[in-house]
Amino acid sequence: MLRRRDDATKERIQFSGRTNDEEDDETMWRWNEDSLLGVGMTEKMMRRCDDATMQRWKEYSLLGVEAMWNMVLDFWTVEKRFHMPLQICLLNVTKYYAVSQQSNSQDIKQLQISEKKPSSSIPGGSLEKKIVPIKRPDNGGTLAFRNTRLFANHFPVKFNPQSIIMHYDVDIKPNMPPGSRAAKRPISKSDLRLITDKLFSDDPTRFPELISTYDGEKNIFSAVPLPTGTFYVELSGGEDTAPRSYRFTIELVNELKVSKLNDYLRGMLSYVPREIFQGMDLVMKDNPSRHMNSVGRSFFSKEFRPNDDLGYGVAAFRGFQQSLKATAQGLALCLDSSVLALRKRLPVLDFLMEQGFQLNDVRTSRREVMREVMHVLKGLKVHVTHRLTNQKYTIAGFSDQNTRDITFTLEDREGENPPREIGLVEYFREKYNKELSYQDMPCVDLGKGNRKNYVPMEFCVLVDGQRYPKEHLDRDRALFLKQISLPRPRERKDTIYGMVRSEDGPCGKTFQCANMQNIDYPFWEGNRPDYCGHPGFQRA
Fold it and tell me: In total, how many domains does the chain have?
């Protein structure tokens, strides 16, 4: 059995002066699921209505069973106080429903879709096949308006609609036997970038770097055809590390005609050419990604202003985020400023001192101090300075012993000398000619998995561009970060202009004129947007 009684029904029952004990079947609306008919009425209710009423009820209920049923509940619950029969109640409901349906149909007929075609804002746009939105009901906003001049952070992008972008798929694997562990180990994004740059720099004739761009994962977009197949690249791991070999497989996926993008901007194409957008967006981000720190979708400078130092080894770094947008005026580059708290590029020991630690406390290796040091440093990426390498390491932990007490078994790779036990201090003296200044401190563990790789902290430097959680900032520093993140309009405009024209920005690529090298803003040439230089300094 189902019982239906909402709060409004309860209020009506109380208003009529009846109690819950006096509620009968007509007030409580009880019915069995098996006896439900298509119009939402029970057999008992149907027997109380004549044939004409039931016929009208069925006709209108087909338009909306739930709406009709709710109206019956409302009408009859209220009107039972005045002893209105169910038959009259149903007639009132059907009349009300018929009037509302007729009113709605008249309102719909009054809505007229404008067939007037707006003027084209894109040169060469044809209005015969152009897809346009419905006209605004207020006559395009001309009933009441006021002209306001606004600066938008959108910069027009010019492109050749006849050009073709070559899209390639890239697969990079270690050159190892398929069953080995090294073959299954994933390659970091930084190594993928190094491998691709090495291939392009080794063979610049077939792999021109200036007219090709790599997304750091699986895609390469180029303005010219590139050779396909499998190539072998050797990447040096450093002074005392054997070179690593990789298989670089490149295959052509598609030839993207930029004319489709032009058709879409003119309204001649009903779908978005996403691959072309992806390729052109990657081209616009190529220069910033090479010279700036990439955090998420934003790019940040590697240097910070002196006044933006937040202390504790953290600073507010300024940058920007950009994306390509399709507008009524054509393709536009949307660029906005951004500010983020990042850790500074510091030696690990200097970073600890800015965090408030005393080196004497670290020397004593007290458990409570090392627990706090572990909380601050674990998971951060570092470079090592005792040998030449670009490899990044992640701090996994610390050694249980101080540096002077750590020993390990040294094996000769060439097999000429037998294995021998050696101390870490002596090893750095023999191998790298380095004398350790802090021998009574623990070492950081830069190993992976169960493999330990102990390195003295004095040879570790934090990698720049590592985000610092803003919730860890105190109130004053968090407020300062918020203030510089919301500059005044004029300051924000100047900042955006400066970022567009900077050496690291979208217009940062320099050009050559006669014997002059590396020419940039305020000078510009014909194949660059005019906002990349001063109007009076265009190269003839």
Answer: 4
Tokens standing for residue 104: 């709605």
Backbone angles phi, psi at 294, to 5 degrees: -95, 120
Segment 30-89, tens digit of pLDDT: 333 333 344 444 455 555 555 665 666 555 555 454 555 555 555 555 444 444 555 555
How many Cβ atoms are within 10 Å of 472's Cβ, its own excluded?
A: 11
First to last CA, the chain: 89
Q: What is the pLDDT of residue 143?
A: 64
> Does residue 273 share a domain with residue 164?
yes
Strand partners, 516: 513
Q: Give the strand order in the sheet containing 454-455.
A: 397-402, 442-445, 454-455
In this prediction, residue 55 carries a pLDDT of: 61
Same domain (yes/no): 458, 523 = no
Q: What is the pLDDT of residue 351?
A: 93
Residue 384: CATH number of its domain: 2.170.260.10
Cα dihedral sign for 188, 190, 194, 200? positive
Whether 301 is covered by a domain: the verdict is no
Per the structure, the complete domain to which residue 414 belongs is given by: 348-463
Tokens of 65: 């069973």
Question: What does the pLDDT read at residue 87?
Answer: 53
Q: Are residues 173 and 217 in the same domain?
A: yes
Residues 209-230, buried b or exposed e (16+ Cβ, 10 A)?
beebbbbeeebbbbbeeeeeee
The pLDDT score that the predictor gives to residue 478 is 92
The parts of the chain modelled with pLDDT lower than 70 are 1-130, 133, 138-145, 179, 181-183, 237-241, 364-366, 415, 508-540
In b/e form, how buried is each residue of 44-77, taking b as 16+ CB within 10 angstroms? ebeeebeeebbebbeebbeeeeeebbebbbbbbb
Q: Are residues 458 and 402 in the same domain?
A: yes
In angstroms, the CA 328 to CA 308 distance is 39
Query: The tokens of 190 are what?
Result: 């930084």
133 by DSSP, 3-state: which?
coil
Distances (CA, A) of 388 to 11, 238, 391, 432, 459: 83, 5, 9, 11, 12
* CB neighbour burial string for 94-110, b if at least 16 within 10 angstroms, e if fewer: beebeeeeeeeeeeeee
pTM of the model: 0.64
CA-CA distances (angstroms) from residue 229 to 201, 210, 248? 18, 21, 8
Q: How much is the pLDDT for 357?
A: 85
